[in-house]
Amino acid sequence: MKTFLYLLPLTIILLFTSACSQLSRHPVYHGSSSNNSKSVIERQRSVSQRQTVSRPQVYQPENRPQQIPGLSTTRYRMLQIAKSTIGVPYRWGGNNPREGFDCSGLMKYVHKQATGIIIPRTAAQQRDNSKTISYNQLQPGDMLFFKTGKRSNHVGIYVGNRQFVHAPSGGKRVKITSMDSAYWHKRFVKFGSYL
């Protein structure tokens, strides 16, 4: 019994100190006004909620060109503009997305929008005035020239992966085509660039 009486004050002291230590875990707000908009607990709750909110993933359309390592900003911009015209109807003499495009009008539009460079109007003039480059030098934003008949020429803009964007004639629309297509491969004339 004496041992129990000896332990009772010790037990009371331990209970009191543990209760005090649990109270001290919560921060005390020492504001001067009782009209504060949020209590300490509300502030802590809002901070923890902000920390756990996850951000939604950003949607990127599939036809949007991805930045290619080592590609200049100008060439990347040309790819964006060229790919944004996909689906625009062909129109002979057309040189903007509202009216439609012919092949050389599309090249003139892409160069002006992306670089501010004004290039000649016809495919033959664009071919003759562009800098000739080799296949090893070919980069997105350069041009591919074709001879489709005695008096007709065609041009497209290279977008990478052996593909080019162009405005084919005959009621078609601006589209991406492979350089390896038998039709275009047979009619290829040169790679050219204004960059």
Describe it for me?
- By secondary structure, the chain is α+β, with helices and mostly antiparallel strands.
- The chain has a domain at 73-193: endopeptidase domain like (from Nostoc punctiforme) (endopeptidase fold (from Nostoc punctiforme), Alpha-Beta Complex), CATH 3.90.1720.10.
- Helix content is 37%, strand content 17%.
- It contains six helices and eight strands; from the N terminus they run αααββααβββββαβ.
- It has helices at 2-23, 40-52, 73-84, 103-115, 123-129, 182-187; strands at 95-96, 100-101, 131-133, 143-147, 153-160, 163-166, 175-178, 188-193.
- The strands form two sheets. A six-stranded antiparallel β-sheet has the order 3-8-4-5-6-7. Strands 1-2 form a two-stranded antiparallel sheet.
- A hairpin with an 8-residue loop joins strand 6 and strand 7.
Q: What is the topological layout?
A:
Elements: H1 2-23, H2 40-52, H3 73-84, E1 95-96, E2 100-101, H4 103-115, H5 123-129, E3 131-133, E4 143-147, E5 153-160, E6 163-166, E7 175-178, H6 182-187, E8 188-193
Antiparallel strand pairs: 1-2, 3-8, 4-5, 4-8, 5-6, 6-7
Features:
8 strands, two-stranded antiparallel sheet, 195 residues, endopeptidase fold (from Nostoc punctiforme), alpha+beta, 17% strand
Outline: globular
Please tell me how large the radius of gyration is.
35 Å
How many strand segments?
A: 8
- Beta-strand portion reads 15-25%
CATH architecture of the domain at 73-193: Alpha-Beta Complex
- If you consult CATH, what is the topology of the domain at 73-193? endopeptidase fold (from Nostoc punctiforme)
pLDDT below 50 for ≥5 consecutive residues: which ranges?
A: 18-35, 50-65
Percent in helix = 25-40%
For CATH, the homologous superfamily of the domain at 73-193 is named as: endopeptidase domain like (from Nostoc punctiforme)
Biggest sheet record: 6 strands, antiparallel
Structural class, from secondary structure content?
alpha+beta
